[in-house]
Design goal:
By secondary structure, the protein is an all-alpha fold. About 80% of the residues lie in helices and about 0% in strands.
């Protein structure tokens, strides 16, 4: 009987957990890119393509009016073609998801320094005051605090658990920390895939617009010929390069924001790892 009791208790510990899964919908995340592309089209069609910005506007309008003679470079971007609204939409997408990630990661970072928070918890655990450590977790209000709180609850249970060895108790605490971490990480990394995708795809989409513009320009050169056609070719090349400029700017912005957010996530992850190590080492040293 002495050998079966710890096994039964260990199974019960593994089966139960204080960590509850976080529910969140991805509908808005997948709807946002569509809305951003629509916004990009509206900016291209009705702002850059405002008839007052062209010397020869197309009075019929429609989905893609054939305005000529842009007044200024801003309206000249309109003649970059139908790829331009896609690039503008992608740029808006980067802004939207950057704001969303900034707010979400800032909330997950919590209040104060993670290093200072871990030191306070270490101090309370050294004095065997688990309740005070839990209070510190409530004050922290971030991912590190959430993981630490889940581990501390299991830590507190293991103090009074008499059917397990120290190694089994430490393993139970570590398992609780791992489960809490597994639930926190997806929330930190959510929507970063859009920024990483735009980083690589933005330039390719811009290159597609540039190639399409060059095809139209050389097509006009072949049909007309002469000095007039050469002028049209130069204008066409300039218009095509608007796509390249927009794509490079969008990709660069997305790359910068992606690196900023991944750096912040790495800092939070380090704090989570440190909190788990603190709990297991503290229990192993004080409750042998």
């Amino acid at each position: 009987m002495a050998e079966t009791k710890p096994t039964a208790t260990a199974s019960a510990v593994k089966a139960s957990t204080s960590v509850q899964p976080k529910r969140s919908s991805n509908i808005i995340s997948w709807l946002a890119p569509i809305l951003c592309i629509i916004v990009g089209y509206i900016i291209w069609r009705y702002v850059m393509g405002d008839p007052s910005g062209f010397s020869k506007p197309d009075p019929e309008g429609g989905f893609w009016p054939s305005h000529k003679g842009p007044i200024g470079q801003f309206h000249g971007i309109y003649e970059g073609g139908i790829i331009v609204p896609v690039l503008i939409g992608m740029f808006v997408m980067v802004i939207v998801f950057s704001i969303e990630r900034f707010l979400s990661i800032s909330k997950s970072t919590g209040k104060g320094s993670n290093a200072e928070f871990v030191r306070k918890v270490q101090y309370h655990l050294a004095n065997k005051n688990v309740d005070a450590a839990l209070v510190e977790c409530d004050k922290q209000q971030g991912s590190v605090g959430n993981v630490m709180k889940a581990g501390l609850r299991r830590y507190k249970e293991m103090i009074t658990e008499g059917g397990l060895s120290t190694e089994q108790k430490v393993a139970a605490i570590q398992k609780e920390v791992e489960e809490a971490t597994a639930l926190e990480m997806p929330m930190l990394q959510k929507n970063l895939v859009f920024l990483s995708t735009i980083t690589s795809v933005g330039t390719l989409v811009a290159l597609l617009g540039t190639v399409m513009g060059m095809i139209r320009s050389f097509g006009a050169l072949g049909e007309e010929g002469g000095a007039g056609a050469a002028a049209e070719l130069a204008i066409g090349i300039a218009e095509a390069l608007y796509n390249t400029a927009l794509g490079i700017a969008t990709s660069a912005f997305a790359l910068i924001m992606y690196n900023i957010f991944t750096t912040k996530i790495d800092t939070i992850t380090f704090g989570i790892d440190e909190s788990g190590f603190t709990l297991t080492q503290s229990f192993a040293s004080q409750y042998k």
